[in-house]
Design goal:
mainly alpha; 4 helices; single chain; 83 residues; 0% strand
Length: 83
């Protein structure tokens, strides 16, 4: 199953589709021994985290992705998974 179909820029798959091109089990499930670390990596990969890019997606009124800046470093950069 390919993840390249459709526009993923505006939904939860925007980051995940940059990491994956096919549906398969990831090696980190076996390599990372800590359940907490595996859980964190999984949440990060599927955008189930509390970074601004995801958290501000649900604000009223909706804040565009280009305005969801990092709340930790105050650099003005978009607070996404890559930052």
């Amino acid at each position: 199953m390919s993840l390249d179909s459709g526009d993923h820029n505006s939904n939860k798959l925007r980051f995940y589709s940059t990491l994956k091109s096919s549906f398969s089990r990831e090696p980190y499930f076996d390599l990372v021994q800590s359940r907490n670390q595996r859980s964190f990596l999984t949440r990060l990969r599927c955008s189930a985290h509390r970074l601004e890019i995801e958290k501000l997606r649900y604000s009223k009124p909706a804040i565009p992705p280009s305005s969801r800046t990092c709340g930790f470093c105050k650099s003005g950069q978009i607070g996404d998974e890559i930052h």
